[in-house]
Structures are given as C-alpha cells and as structure tokens.
Amino acid sequence: MDMPAGTSLDKMTEVTQNVEKLLKKHPDVTLVVSMVGDSSGQTNVASIYVRLVEKRYRKNHMTTNKFKDIVRLELASWFSFANPKTTDPMGNFGGLRPFNVNVIGSDIPTLNKFLQDLWQS
Q: pTM for the complete prediction?
C-alpha cells in the first residue's frame, strides 16, 4: 500500500492494522505479517504478507487467485485511498519464501550486539 508522501508512520500503521483485521476475518488466513515504512525511510508505504492454509483445507478449496480477487474487492471498497495492490512474492523455494530483515538505528554497539545474538540463535 502507499499513501501520499508525508503520511505519518502512525497513520500508515493505523491503516495497515485495519487492513490486517480485515484479512484475519477470512478463515483460510493463517498468518498476516506487515511492514510499515521501508528501508529508505519512507513512512507512507506498507507491505503485508498473507499465508493461507493448505489448499486442501480451504473453504470450498479456494485458489490463491480467487482469494486475491476477493481481497481486491474488499480493499477497493474500504481502503482505496491507500492504493492497495495484491502481488505474488518473488521466488518460492519448496514453500519457503526468502525475506529481508532491516535493522535500523543509530546506536551501533547495541545494534552489533543485537545482530550477533540474533545470528547465534
């Protein structure tokens, strides 16, 4: 999603949380993960990842494409001001999808300690 430049992080977070609530109402949704803002410091953008239950367990054996069609209509009805788009993640490696973790801060020693602890776990 993207909203006009200058949208505050708080406002973008609020909109994103409302979209998450809408998505979580679907019984076939098992996971919703959001990232508000981006690594370049833009506060007016958000990305949401949605995972569905395995197809054989979905209500009416709904396909991912059919689910995206339903979500597009819902988002267009309620959140058109946020320019929502549905896309497929890049790459799919045996059901696992790559992801990035961006850790941003100004306290370098604390960041280094955090990253070392994270790496070891």
A: 0.68
